[in-house]
Amino acid sequence: MISKVDSFGTSYSLEKNNEKTPVVFIHGVGLTKEIWYPQINFFKSYTTLTYDLLGHGKTPLKNSKVSFEDFSKQLLRLIRELNFNKIHLVGFSLGALIARHFAYKHHSMLKSLIIHGSIYKRSEEQKRIVLNRLEVAKMNKPASKQSALKRWLSDEYSKKNPDICKKIYSILEKNKRTDFLKCYELFANFIDNDSILKDIYVNTLITTGENDVGSTPEMSRNLSKMIQGSNFIEIKNGKHLCSIECSEDVNIIFKNFIDQNND
């Protein structure tokens, strides 16, 4: 895939393969658009768009702070510049929170919404753990990245796929530290607003890995109760990056839902 840059500085990759509604993927904190390679390879007959969030990959972050409003504006500007009237939106982790915010603000632009690996109402213990991870990340030591990989992928998968682990580690290592921390702080301190969720009027699918310790199945089940008409599917054997580790199952689940919501 060839990366391009829009007039606002967002680095993106567009695979235009048909006239159907494009599928747009939003990555998680510390990652880049390249993380979606199993989905882009699978959805070859679809028009797909991936992009680097503000402060990630090749997209700069010029503000001293970043907000979900900033991230929603970034996506809105990008799809308007590409002349997309409607999209299927898939958001993962931090990207899932951005997708939720975007759906609340711009539901008329969405044909469907997939919220993948999303947090929802962390317990006090879960809040303590993520804030501790933030403090460890500030030290910028390899242990922070290594522990992330352990949370995101099973030990068995990591042993069998060292090259993929190295690729993900390299993405984490290349982050501009100040920008990454601005985004991680936003994620770590996130507080859910149920009134926003109740105002999402889009056909919505919520998915997460069976073994995801940060974005648990319980969180997703409870989140599904808040978004009108949404469905929840648990990805068997998956951890946080089940879009890579369990890509065959994830891709079929995503495809079935998107196809149901195509004209």
Low-confidence stretches: none
**Name given to the CATH homologous superfamily:** Alpha/Beta hydrolase fold, catalytic domain
CATH architecture: 3-Layer(aba) Sandwich
Helices and strands, in order, run as: EEEHEHEHEHHHHHHEHEHH
In this structure, how is the largest beta sheet organized?
8 strands, mixed
Give the structural class.
alpha/beta
Number of helices: 12
- Gyration radius, in Å: 17 Å
CATH topology: Rossmann fold
Strand order of the largest sheet: 1-2-4-3-5-6-7-8
Tell me the number of structural domains: 1
Say how many strands there are: 8
Please give the CATH class: Alpha Beta
Structural shape:
globular
Structure notes:
- This protein is an alpha/beta fold.
- The protein has one domain: Alpha/Beta hydrolase fold, catalytic domain (Rossmann fold).
- It is 46% helix and 15% strand.
- Strands 1-2-4-3-5-6-7-8 form an eight-stranded mixed beta sheet, sandwiched between helices.
- The chain is globular.
- It starts with a strand and ends with a helix.
- The relative contact order is 0.16.
- The mean pLDDT is 96.
Keywords:
Rossmann fold; 263 residues; alpha/beta
Task: Write a brief structural summary.
This protein has 263 residues and is an alpha/beta fold. It contains twelve helices and eight strands.
Layout of helices and strands:
Blueprint: E1 3-5, E2 11-15, E3 23-26, H1 37-42, E4 48-51, H2 68-81, E5 87-92, H3 94-105, E6 110-116, H4 124-138, H5 142-152, H6 155-160, H7 162-173, H8 177-188, H9 194-197, E7 204-209, H10 217-226, E8 231-235, H11 242-245, H12 247-260
Parallel strand pairs: 3-4, 3-5, 5-6, 6-7, 7-8
Antiparallel strand pairs: 1-2, 2-4
